[in-house]
């Protein structure tokens, strides 16, 4: 050992080692040495972390204000961890569980990524305002924007949802008084047909017409429509008839389930329409009393009709007959300076047999029947003039085959002398070989009605012969033949 220590090389090595040790003792600072050992730890500052409220019973309350809404957060952790953690992972909460309505100062808590700890949180508390929620029902209105196409009109918009037009609006109690309107809006610009939106968004507006976006609406959409149609108006409904009723039956009444109908047409055509007579009852299909559904058809320039179907309450009875005596014959249409006098029948009255339902016939009075002879344009002389009959509804005359319903009238010229009897000469007309005279008064007889079946119920052969010489009118449409009235 002594020999090794005395060796020059060994002494040099020992001297170097001792020098290094002494240098380290002199130059290493014991205070800073720990920092060198932990240099991978760092801090991070997040200036604006959004404060998130938690725990609030949102079915009863709502937070309407919070001050401040962000916080400053300083954290510490390994550099690698700080770099990999996104800012969204740093969360600051305010716990609102059990908090009652009012203004409260509450503490903040932080939720940080793993292996990162909070160094500083500023502020430590926030002020929040909690309000009670209330729910109220509102009727949804349908608003429109724009104008439909030229010649079209906008009808009344409506909500068609199965649940109706009511919705539930939820707002803070103090804000509920601000609600002025709950509505959906449909754009009808240039529309020539009905505009429909099955998912129209419901919007809540305040009293100034400004949307309240925080309002919660249930349901949030509704099925709405705005009708766009041609101009329209409601007019009285008049029933027409076609076909032939069974000879053993007569009408007592025909009553539609509505008295007016809405018609749609261009304005020029619409202005000329005063009634709607597009409901036609086919009498050949009437076999007894009861309701009959009849389609409403577009007629006389009408584009469409609403409703599309009308129900007629039809009442029929067995046919009967009745004779009305002493019916006066009226004359109209004498020219200037001329005078018309009735020659046959001399009495100036006639008898007329009627057929119809017994319930109708029993109420017919002589004053309900008009016999009119029109002499317009006839020159002086004796003329055979057909009569025009005006009869009550659902009544028709019984006219034997070959029997004319006419009268003989003499037209006199008041300004010229009368030569001779005048009865032996007829001017401008042919004499009537078979004058029409009254027949004895007959009581209503069911058999008479059946016997008259040969003359036909409105459109039969007997009536056809009589109508060659007479014009028959009623205050309503008569029981009509197939060619209508």
Automatic annotation (TrEMBL):
Q: Domain of life, per the record?
A: Bacteria
Instruction: Note the Gene3D superfamilies from the entry.
Output: 2.170.120.30, YbbR-like domain (2.170.120.40)
Pfam entry (one): YbbR
Protein keywords: Membrane, Transmembrane, Transmembrane helix
InterPro entries (UniProt xref) = c-di-AMP_regulator, YbbR
Q: Does the keyword Iron apply?
A: no
Record's keyword annotation contains Transmembrane helix: yes
Which stretches are transmembrane?
A: 9-28
Q: Which residues form a coiled coil?
A: none
> Bias category Gly residues: which stretches?
451-463
Which residue ranges have biased composition labelled Acidic residues? 440-449
Q: Where is this region: Disordered?
A: 415-485
Q: What is this protein called?
A: YbbR-like domain-containing protein YbbR
Q: Which organism is it from?
A: Paenibacillus oryzae
């Amino acid at each position: 050992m002594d020999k090794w220590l005395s060796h020059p090389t060994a002494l040099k090595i020992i001297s170097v080692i001792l020098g290094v040790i002494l240098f380290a003792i002199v130059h290493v600072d014991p205070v800073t040495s720990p920092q060198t050992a932990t240099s991978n730890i760092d801090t991070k500052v997040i200036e604006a972390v959004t404060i998130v409220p938690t725990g609030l019973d949102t079915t009863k309350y709502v937070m309407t204000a919070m001050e401040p809404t962000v916080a400053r957060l300083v954290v510490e952790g390994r550099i690698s961890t700080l770099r990999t953690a996104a800012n969204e992972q740093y969360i600051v909460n305010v716990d609102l569980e059990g908090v009652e309505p009012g203004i409260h100062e509450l503490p903040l808590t932080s939720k940080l990524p793993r292996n990162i700890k909070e160094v500083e949180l500023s502020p430590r508390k926030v002020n929040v305002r909690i309000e009670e929620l209330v729910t109220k029902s509102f009727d949804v209105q349908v608003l429109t924007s724009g104008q439909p196409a030229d010649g079209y009109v906008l009808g009344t918009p409506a909500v068609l949802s199965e649940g109706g037009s009511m919705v539930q609006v939820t707002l803070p109690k103090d804000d509920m008084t601000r609600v002025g309107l709950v509505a959906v809006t449909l754009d009808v610009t240039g529309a020539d047909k009905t505009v429909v939106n099955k998912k129209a968004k419901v919007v809540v507006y305040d009293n100034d017409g400004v949307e309240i976006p925080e309002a919660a609406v249930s349901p949030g959409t509704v099925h709405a429509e705005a009708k766009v149609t041609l101009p329209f108006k409601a007019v009285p409904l008049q029933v027409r008839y076609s076909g032939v009723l069974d000879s053993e039956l007569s009408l007592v009444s025909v009553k539609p389930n509505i008295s007016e109908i809405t018609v749609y047409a261009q304005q020029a055509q619409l202005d000329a329409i005063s009634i709607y007579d597009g409901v036609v009852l086919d009498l050949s299909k009437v076999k007894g009393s009861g309701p009959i559904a009849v389609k409403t058809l577009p007629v006389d320039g009408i584009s469409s009709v609403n409703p599309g179907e009308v129900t007629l309450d039809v009442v029929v009875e067995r046919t009967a007959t009745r004779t009305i005596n002493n019916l006066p014959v009226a004359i109209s249409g004498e020219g200037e300076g001329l005078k018309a006098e009735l020659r046959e029948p001399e009495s100036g009255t006639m008898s007329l047999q009627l057929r119809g339902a017994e319930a109708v016939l029993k109420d017919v009075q002589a004053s309900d029947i008009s016999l009119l002879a029109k002499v317009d344009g006839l020159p002086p002389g004796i003329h055979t003039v057909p009569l025009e009959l005006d009869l009550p509804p659902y009544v028709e005359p019984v006219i034997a085959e070959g029997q004319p319903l006419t009268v003989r009238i003499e037209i006199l010229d008041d300004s010229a002398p009368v030569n001779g009897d005048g009865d032996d000469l007829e001017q401008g007309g042919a004499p009537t070989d078979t004058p029409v005279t009254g027949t004895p008064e007959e009581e209503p007889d069911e058999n008479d009605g059946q016997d008259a079946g040969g003359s036909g119920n409105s459109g039969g052969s007997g009536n056809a012969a009589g109508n060659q010489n007479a014009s028959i009118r009623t205050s309503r449409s008569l029981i009509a033949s197939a060619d209508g009235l």
